Amino acid sequence: MTVRQAAELLEARLVSAEGQWEREITSACGSDMMSDVMAFFHGQGIMLTGLINPQVVRTANLMDIASICVVRGKKTTPEMRALADEFAIPIMETDFSMFVACGKLYEAGLSGTPAR
């Protein structure tokens, strides 16, 4: 699934890294704890979170995460979008809750990454 396809599925608005919207995503992770993302998620996936701070983008860059989805109708900050553009990480914003968004991605064939 591509970032653009995930955004369509989640009825999300893509707000950064326009040139990266066709990037493939192979798994998904939902968490508001960046320490859990760093401990348990790896690979070219999509991270779903309700956090809206630059640390989310820095974590995604560090962990080679392909895209970020901000859930619950929250809006990203200009600083987040600028950092995501710099790192070429697409961010999308959806009104769905994290539970529903993760369920929609799972139903469409994405899985979580197995524990290491």
Brief descriptors of the model:
Udp-n-acetylmuramoylalanyl-d-glutamate--2,6- Diaminopimelate Ligase, Chain: A, domain 1, five-stranded mixed beta sheet, globular, 5 helices, alpha/beta
Give the topology.
Blueprint (H helix, E strand, L loop, with lengths): L2 H7 L3 E2 L13 E3 L3 H7 L5 E4 L4 H9 L4 E4 L7 H10 L3 E3 L4 H10 L9
Parallel strand pairs: 2-3, 3-4, 4-5
Antiparallel strand pairs: 1-5
Can you give a write-up of this model?
This protein has a five-stranded mixed beta sheet, sandwiched between helices. The protein has 116 residues and is of the alpha/beta class. The protein is globular, with a radius of gyration of 12 Å. 37% of the residues lie in helices and 14% in strands. The protein has five helices and five strands, in the order H-E-E-H-E-H-E-H-E-H. The mean pLDDT is 93. The protein starts with a helix and ends in a 9-residue tail after the last helix. It has one domain: HprK N-terminal domain-like (Udp-n-acetylmuramoylalanyl-d-glutamate--2,6- Diaminopimelate Ligase, Chain: A, domain 1, 3-Layer(aba) Sandwich).
Number of domains: 1
SSE arrangement, N to C:
HEEHEHEHEH
Mean pLDDT over the residues:
93
Instruction: Report strand %.
Output: 5-15%
Sheet with the most strands: spatial strand order: 1-5-4-3-2
Distance between the ends = 23 Å
CATH superfamily: HprK N-terminal domain-like
Brief summary:
The protein is α/β, with parallel strands linked by helices.
